[in-house]
Design brief:
single chain; 56 residues; mainly alpha; 2 helices; 0% strand; rod-shaped
Length: 56
C-alpha cells in the first residue's frame, strides 16, 4: 500500500498532477454554474426594471 502512495519514487510529481487535474475538473463544473446564476439574477433585475410602469 505504501508503495502505491510513493508511486515508485515519483510521488512528488504524480500527486500534485492529480491534485491540479482534480481542481481543474471542479472549476470546469463550478465556474459555468456560478456564471449562469449571476446572469439569471442580472436578467431578472433587468426584466423587473423593464416591467415597472414609468412614473411621471
Amino acid at each position: 500500500m505504501l508503495e502505491f502512495f510513493q508511486m515508485g519514487g515519483y510521488a512528488a510529481y504524480v500527486w500534485p498532477a492529480y491534485g491540479i487535474t482534480a481542481l481543474s475538473m471542479i472549476l470546469v463544473i463550478v465556474h459555468p454554474i456560478r456564471k449562469h446564476k449571476k446572469l439569471r439574477k442580472t436578467l431578472s433585475q433587468l426584466h423587473a426594471k423593464r416591467t415597472q410602469p414609468e412614473r411621471s
